[in-house]
Write a structure and sequence with these properties.
246 residues, alpha/beta, five-stranded mixed β-sheet, four-stranded mixed β-sheet, 17 strands, 30% strand, globular
């Protein structure tokens, strides 16, 4: 199977669509002065399909989050969220929940990559196209954006991993907050044995990477150009000699 990393196009944009403001209804606070590594930080995860509205008290607390909190406050809120999320949901400081809110303007292409936190927006006709082709792992969430046309966001599975041979040096992880101290190398490839049965996903150990398959590219591309660049990425078996990107 052929995989691609997608990125915003570096060419002159074909479409004028943009988010003038954007937010989500709920979020975990960032972490201030982790007692393990001393870092103050927040990640870039979002789960648009996680609805916290039925959990009234928790939802109210996560609407009121402002700046980063200390470990005791953050971990208490994280554990409450974990109890109502699907098993195995990755949570980190700053994780956001719920549909995309805000204002949009302009004319949108079939698919758009918005960042942060690296989400994929589809027009209604693009959603119909990927659903008609039976693409796997496609969970659409209707946005709550004011202005412009109706868009849906894909709730991308967080799955798969980079091939260990493409990561130079050790990946140091804080034993308390689980923050990893490493830098994404210029060349990297996927661990074939870790990949999900999905045609679009975010890499679990490098969540800023959005991966799509050839099937996704063809379904969206049939509707015309999007302001997205597709860069092919290898997926190799764990013990195979590593190669660079094509």
């Amino acid at each position: 199977m052929t995989y691609y990393v997608i990125d915003r196009s570096h060419a002159w944009p074909r479409w004028s669509g943009e988010l003038t403001t954007s937010a989500r209804r709920w979020s975990l606070p960032g972490l201030r002065d982790c007692p393990g590594c001393g870092e103050t930080w927040a990640g870039l995860l979002a789960y648009p399909n996680v609805d916290l509205a039925p959990h009234t008290e928790l939802a109210a607390q996560l609407q009121a989050t402002g700046g980063p909190e200390d470990w005791a406050t953050y971990s208490h809120l994280r554990d409450q969220v974990r109890a109502v999320c699907p098993p195995g949901t990755c949570l980190m400081p700053g994780t956001e929940f719920g549909p995309l809110l805000g204002a949009a303007s302009g004319t949108w292409g079939p698919a758009t990559l918005v960042m942060p936190p690296w989400g994929v927006l589809l027009r209604e006709d693009a959603l119909a196209a990927v659903q008609a082709r039976g693409l796997r792992g496609i969970t659409p969430v209707r946005t709550e954006l004011v202005g412009g046309e109706q868009l849906v966001e894909l709730a991308l599975p967080l799955a798969g991993a980079l091939h260990p041979d493409s990561i130079p040096g050790p990946r140091r992880q804080c034993a308390v907050c689980e923050r990893e101290d490493w830098t994404l190398p210029e060349d990297y490839w996927l661990d074939e044995s870790s990949l999900p049965a999905a045609d679009a996903f975010r890499v679990a150990d490098a969540p800023t990477l959005v991966i799509v398959t050839e099937a996704f590219r063809r379904a969206v591309g049939a509707l015309g150009h999007s302001d997205i660049d597709y860069r092919r990425i290898d997926a190799l078996p764990p013990r195979r000699e590593a190669h660079h990107l094509h």
